[in-house]
Amino acid sequence: xxxxxxxxxxxxxFGLGYCDPDTFVKTQCRLPACxxxxxxxxxxxxxxxxxxxxxxNSRLNKARDPDEGPxxxxxxxxxxxxxxxxxxxxxFLIILYLTVRRTASVxxxxxxDLAPRPVKNDEIIFRGEMMxxxxxxxxxxxxxxxLSWFLYNVVGxxxxxxxxxxxxVEFNGSTDVVVVVVHTINTVFIISNLLLTAMPWQIxxxxxxxxxxxLYFLFTYIYYAAGGTDFKGRPYIYSTVDWSKAYxxxxxxxxxxxxxxxxxxxxxxxxxxxxxxxxxxLNSATYSTQVTGASSSAHHQTRVDGARSSFHHxxxxxxxxxxxxxxxxxxSPIH
Length: 335
Description:
By secondary structure, the protein is mostly helical. The chain has 9 helices and 2 strands. The protein has one domain. The protein has a two-stranded antiparallel sheet with strand order 1-2. β1 (130-133) and β2 form a beta hairpin. α5 (143-170) runs antiparallel to α7 (185-196), α5 (143-170) packs across α9 and α8 (207-225) packs antiparallel against α9 (246-331). The chain is globular. Mean pLDDT is 81; it is low at 111-137 and 325-335.
């Protein structure tokens, strides 16, 4: 375990290349491809529907004037929801593209499923993007998988912090369905997606949500300096990020960006580690059952083979005894 943790802190772990791109397009427990496709389709449709609902809700119920509708984009909740929707869109388009590509391959070669396969089915998805190095099978990671991984790293920690910040700081006792969904199901999506899919999670990728959060809070300062207001005309977007009180705001922002974001990212790494641990236990249990069954079958077969061998040996000995007796009778003198 310690070796694995040390491996997480190698410089190359900052990057978006991965040794096995297959993990980005399947579930951890190897559910059928159609299940993974439906999973991506569901979250794509879900986020598109709710981002539209959030925009309409803000314009009708929160903005003082319909012309203030564009202020929807100044809120961290909404920009994160937008990025999460983009993430789900990219993920769905990737699996749709790979599904169509694989289907086209089967149509072009309908007997391919009957032929021996030297590689796994999932590896065929990345045909043309494989490379062999030092005799070991390694893969370049396609750009679209890097994009998907980058986006998921950005929205993973941020969605959970948005949920925590809203329900502990911003919630004032009154809300509506859209707000509840946007500030709750976002976290459900992040955790469930991390548990179900085989997508990896690396500690050093905390730099991506940190940069996103830093850029957002820099925007809030520029927006304040330019005289921007929220939906209610107040000179700040969030009460805890009021730049007219520079000192406490700077402390809150620094703690949020440099402490809270990395901590949440590491918590998600723990969830990922639990997923790998759980899968390995289930997989080893399945393997143990298969081995036990195979051993029992082999033992039974050995006993049968032993009995057959003993029977053939006794038969052969009896046959030889009779042959020796016949030979003695034929060679004995006649008196």
